[in-house]
Design a protein that fits this description.
about 500 residues, alpha/beta, Arc Repressor Mutant, subunit A, Aspartate Aminotransferase, domain 2, Aspartate Aminotransferase, domain 1, seven-stranded mixed beta sheet
């Protein structure tokens, strides 16, 4: 049963000098709230005495309004319980508006061309953390809840108003210094804390880059397959995106052909690219860096998957090799939990002020309290220990998934070795309806998006994008068994 914790009656106004009685004015406004859905069906209206006090009316005025609502079928009155909105309203029995009237209303409520363009993108659905094999989702049950609770309890008891105000730069500065140390120690990336822009996710980084470094109509080279919401962000800013096909060696600037001559930026994920799962080879990285230097272009380096590495030689970031031409972005959303909405980007010193202004205009900030908590978490050395522990867990889960897949589906799919990130993409060796299989798996509680949905170019490959981060070793064999049966039945 719903009650009014945030009362709609605060919106009620009266013409106390008019000729319409107050009880009729109250009836009319309450009726409109009920019909418009502002007061939900079965909700209990406030007691007449409380309503009268809130509105400065006599109780008898409210009683008369309630009685008329009951008489006309909008509420029912139950002795000793209260006044409740009916499930079925008088309007529910009236004929629908004519097609012409409905069409006029629909036309008025149509989105703009830009809004329609977003709808036409056919975005893949969000990941479902509660489902098994959900790609990119970390081990949420392994999140250090108790440690964060201790830190949060201490911080909230300090009653520091700066942590709950508008001064986002204070929190960003505190967390930025910790991130700068982490990047230096873990990735050999040298940057000053003031170069770090703390944001909610890497999509916000792409939006800021689009506005600060590029102009409407500029060409951006994107990986194909790609992170569709990221491409949608670029196109929403009026940029032209050109897909460059990927292979097992990662992004190849030469594959862009003549288009790369006019491109202003290339967006790449050098390690365990989402969703293809490839890693750029050193020669291709060097070619890309040379392209940026020769053409005066920019490189947007999304290094989110490299935050979680448990096997193989560590990759030197593109930013470490050219800090002026590479905009680096990373995230704690997979290292810790996506619900934190906490990411960061490194920008060149001469552009810090411009990026900061753009961040302020778009309000691309991470919540200050969460920034403070993560900064303290890092200060205590707990991030490093958490990452070490999680690497062991992810190594075991990735190995288990790989072994099960090769055993059950090795003849049907190419099953790569996963060395970083939280996903493993299997690519079909023969024609395969990955969309139908993915849909069938959803009905079985498995969230395995089809690889073909992430392509923008004409050449599409089929397969499934699988996750192991949030699925235990105990459950993985059963999940692969369900997957194998779905492939056999549908694919």
């Amino acid at each position: 049963m719903q009650t009014f914790n945030y009362p709609s009656w605060n919106r009620i106004t009266f013409d106390r000098k008019g000729t319409v009685p107050l009880n009729e004015q109250l009836f009319g406004q309450l009726r409109r709230f009920i019909v418009d859905g502002m007061i939900s069906p079965t909700a209990r209206l406030p007691p007449s005495r409380l309503m009268a006090e809130e509105l400065g009316l006599s109780r008898n005025t409210v009683v008369l309004a309630y009685e008329r609502l009951a008489t006309e079928g909008y509420v029912s009155r139950r002795v000793g319980a209260g006044t409740f909105v009916e499930n079925m309203l008088p309007e529910d029995h009236r004929p629908s508006p004519s097609p012409a009237a409905a069409a006029t209303k629909d036309a008025f409520l149509s989105p703009s061309r830009r809004g329609q363009a977003l709808l036409d993108l056919d975005l893949p659905p969000e990941r479902i953390a509660a489902f098994d094999l959900s790609a990119g989702v970390p081990a949420l049950n392994e999140f250090p809840y108790d440690v964060f609770a201790q830190i949060a309890s201490r911080r909230w008891r300090e009653h520091t108003s700066a942590h709950t105000g508008y001064d986002y730069s204070r929190g960003a500065s505190l967390l930025g210094s910790r991130i700068a140390t982490y990047l230096s120690d873990a990735k050999a990336i040298a940057c000053k804390p003031e170069q770090l822009i703390v944001i909610g996710n890497t999509l916000q980084a792409a939006a800021l880059v689009s506005h600060v470094l590029l102009d409407r109509g500029d060409t951006v080279l994107i990986e194909d397959p790609c992170h569709i919401p990221q491409v949608a962000t670029l196109e929403a800013f009026g940029l032209t995106t050109v897909p460059v096909p990927l292979d097992e060696s990662g992004f190849d600037i030469a594959a862009a052909g003549e288009v790369n001559r006019n491109a202003r930026m290339a967006i790449v994920s050098p390690v365990e690219q989402w969703p293809f799962g490839c890693t750029m080879t050193p020669p291709r990285q060097q070619n890309l860096l040379e392209w940026a230097a020769d053409r005066g272009g920019w490189i947007f380096e999304d290094d989110s998957n490299n935050e979680i590495r448990w096997s193989g030689e560590a990759q030197v970031s593109l930013h470490a090799r050219d800090p002026l031409r590479v905009i680096y972005t990373g995230s704690f959303n997979r290292v810790l939990a996506p619900g934190l909405r906490l990411a960061y980007m490194i920008v060149p010193e001469p552009l810090v002020e411009t990026f900061s202004v753009a961040q302020r205009i778009f309000s691309f900030y991470a919540p200050l309290p969460d920034q403070i908590l993560v900064a303290d978490f890092m200060d205590q050395g707990r991030l490093a220990s958490h990452m070490r522990r999680m690497r062991t867990i992810y190594r075991e889960r990735a190995a288990c998934l790989t072994e099960c897949l090769r055993d059950r589906l090795g003849d049907t799919f190419d099953v790569p070795d996963a060395r970083a990130g939280l996903h493993l993409t299997i690519r079909a060796r023969r024609p395969f309806n990955d969309v139908a299989v993915s849909r069938a798996l959803l009905e079985k509680g498995l969230d395995c998006p089809p690889l073909s949905r992430y392509f923008r170019g004409q050449v599409k490959r089929t397969g499934l994008v699988l996750g192991f981060g949030n699925t235990s070793v105990r459950r993985i064999p059963r999940c692969v068994d369900i997957l194998a049966r779905a492939v056999s039945a549908v694919g």
